[in-house]
Design goal:
Helices cover about 45% and strands about 20% of the residues. With about 300 residues, the protein is an alpha/beta fold. It folds into two domains: about 80 residues, Orthogonal Bundle (Arc Repressor Mutant, subunit A); about 180 residues, 3-Layer(aba) Sandwich (Rossmann fold), CATH 3.40.50.150. Strands 6-5-4-7-8-10-9 form a seven-stranded mixed β-sheet, with helices on both faces. Strands 1-3-2 form a three-stranded antiparallel β-sheet. Helix 10 links the parallel strand 5 and strand 6.
């Protein structure tokens, strides 16, 4: 094996528990509590092994406010050893990890079902008088088929109706979609229930897609952006509006946020790796000391 310092890597993996944890984080990004639940080991033990794996350069720790998530570091070691872990007898661990990821999705869906009637007033606590919908619509081309991914109760869809030839709204919350369906302006819109990482849209079905304050609720925002690329026609437009990176932990408890915003570089990297060309960015201040970033991109394929 070449391309990486073999001795510290092999020393770090010369332990059954560390090998087990490393195999897990090659497939999933998990926090300590989730790794404890999956492996059924004590937290001090898990934390000690994660520290050794991190010091060996095998595991990357991503801090998001008070939370820390662990995943395998992109490295020659991962590229060399990863295929060897594909069949390592840890199917039960992988199954429990998948359940932990699904539990996040269920928790988010339940949260939005519960707060759906109050969502508009809750958003004003952060956004104040900023007309997010108007700003997004001003960025969209006229006369196109468009999809609002994470449409909630449909305010943005109503604004998009002035420009779109056909409208699709996707949300995982039945309560949010019920509110959207009650709006007369959306009588002809196609409102679909589904997860944003697995969109209920066909390949190249629309010409513009929007994520408005939705990506920070997802476990895997990069996967959702890739899905947006799949459902966009060649030359189609992607618009993202989301919070920039912050440290306000209140956003988790009050609004169910999973990510405390994103750095512009983080979003740009996901956008470009999904096959988009980033065209425009802008930042607007909102309340609570937060900033809202707007990103406009087009599919690079023609």
């Amino acid at each position: 094996m070449t391309g990486f310092a073999a001795l510290p890597v092999f020393k770090a993996l010369a332990d059954e528990t560390r090998l087990r944890i490393f195999a897990l984080v090659t497939r999933f990004e998990l926090n300590v509590g989730e790794i404890v639940a999956v492996t059924r080991l004590g937290q001090p033990r898990v934390s000690r092994h994660l520290r050794i794996l991190t010091e060996a350069g095998l595991v990357h720790a991503r801090r998001d406010g008070l939370w820390v998530f662990y995943s395998a570091s992109e490295s020659d070691a991962l590229r060399t050893l990863g295929p060897l872990l594909a069949d390592c007898g840890l199917d039960e661990d992988f199954s429990r990890a998948q359940e932990a990821i699904q539990a996040r999705v269920t928790q988010t869906r339940s949260f939005f079902n519960a707060i759906a009637p109050d969502w508009r007033s809750m958003r004003r606590e952060v956004l104040g008088n900023l007309d997010v919908e108007g700003r997004i619509v001003s960025l969209l081309p006229k006369g196109r088929s468009m999809a609002d991914l994470g449409c909630g109760p449909g305010e943005l869809l109503c604004a998009m109706a002035k420009k779109a030839s056909a409208l699709i709204g996707v949300d995982a919350s039945a309560a949010m979609l019920a509110l959207a369906r009650s709006k007369p302006e959306l009588a002809s819109a196609s409102l679909r229930m589904g997860e944003l990482e697995h969109l209920p849209l066909a390949d190249a079905e629309v010409q513009a897609t929007v994520f408005s304050l939705t990506l920070h609720h997802l476990s895997d925002p990069a996967a959702a952006i890739r899905e947006a690329g799949r459902v966009l026609a060649p030359g189609g437009m992607l618009v993202i509006a989301d919070y920039l990176k912050h440290e306000n932990e209140r956003m988790r408890a009050r609004f169910g946020d999973r990510w405390l915003g994103f750095t512009p570089g983080e979003l740009a990297a996901w956008i470009e790796s999904a096959g988009f060309a980033l065209e425009k960015t802008d930042v607007k201040p909102v309340k609570l000391g937060l900033e809202l970033g707007f990103f406009v991109a087009r599919t690079a394929r023609q």
